[in-house]
Amino acid sequence: MSLHRDRSIVQRPWYFTGMAVMILLAGFSVRLWDLAGASLWIDELLVEFRVEESVGQTIDYLAENASQGPLYYLVMHLFDRSNELQLRIVSVWLALLGIALLMLLVVRVYKNYDLALIAGILLAFSPYHIWLSRAGIAYSLLFTLSLLSSLLFLMLLQ
Question: For the chain, how far is it from start to end, CA to CA, in angstroms?
Answer without folding.
Answer: 24
